[in-house]
Amino acid sequence: MAVHYYSQNDINTDLLFPGKYTYTCGTGPEIVEHLLEDLDPGFREKVKAGDIIMAGSNFGCGSSREQPTLGLKYLGVQAIIARSFARIFYRSSINQGLLLVQSPDAVDFYTPGDEVTVDPSAGILRVGEREFPFPALPVEMLAILEAGGLLNWIKENNV
Hints:
With about 160 residues, the protein is of the alpha/beta class. The protein contains eight helices and seven strands.
């Protein structure tokens, strides 16, 4: 598991997935080809399932495209930890089953190379040897994440 650290604030959806591909890339493999290409051109070669992204404030601001969350989930990103998230990106991530944790202190404490683990049911984020508590996720949200997203949860529960 690796941590991909982006210290800047206001990483918008265009930096996560360029808008020029919005209507030409719709599947996971197509989206992955362009994820973070303007922010971190080597990202798609470096990222592995289980990796974590750490970032500054207002992560995912901008337009309401779902490609960034769909692509990150497709790659197997375990979680995104940021100082804060844009509301629509947060909702889209939950819909896709991608865990987001808001923890300004953990982001500020992080030093590249630190091991990072997240336990969403206990509300514990560990960075190096330090723990950063956050509100444990409600059982309903945990179920959506475990199902791999809202649509999967709906199908599994015949809702």
